[in-house]
Amino acid sequence: MATQKKMTKTEATKEPYLKGKNSIYLWSFISINLAILLSVIVGGKLAGSSIEEFWHRVSAKDGIIAASIPLLAIVLSGVLSDTAKARLVFWRWKDPLPGCRVFTELLGTDPRIDVPALKQKLGELPTEPQAQNTLWYRLYKQQRTEVRIWEAHKIYLLTRDMATIAALFVVLFPIALTAATVAWKTAAIYISVLITQYLLTSSAARNYGVRFVLNVLSEESLAV
What we know:
Blueprint: H1 2-43, H2 48-59, H3 64-78, H4 82-90, H5 102-106, H6 115-122, H7 129-143, H8 147-179, H9 184-222
Helix pairs in contact: 1-2, 1-3, 1-8, 4-8, 6-9, 7-9, 8-9
């Protein structure tokens, strides 16, 4: 009983801290993108000096844009559901979460996992996607206070939200360019940058998501 209370207290102190750290990074991500957008709209080009100028305007503590960025981050992060975010990251429409294929596709890819020990502990492993995710999630709930687990979870959630916001920017920012009548060559280059940003962040989130899922199995296979 005492152990359970200690774990609950640990979770209560860690989770808000992780969310706060992710928020800071998301604010910076949005601020940089807004600075580049304003540079393109006002200056008509992607120039380092112009981007730096607008960065100072966007990040100014007494500026209205800086004050609205935390609210913007909350809205953009909540526009899409968790399932939709997973689809944008893993590029799968049905059963996009890696937990849905963790035992059939991912288990043998991580040399840290003692597969025989895991099978002996869990018995016959499920093959149906939802059953796989259900079992994995049960294991995660047992291992979630391990440092390696919650750190991997934190970075996955951060990159997942960055990828989601990057995807929204691919849709929303070109509309702003059209309204501002930016030259088509500049617009084409900038949209290419936005697409590249989404591809990079989604790839990072995909890798971190798989690592997070496998970290749980690694800890479970080694747990006594």
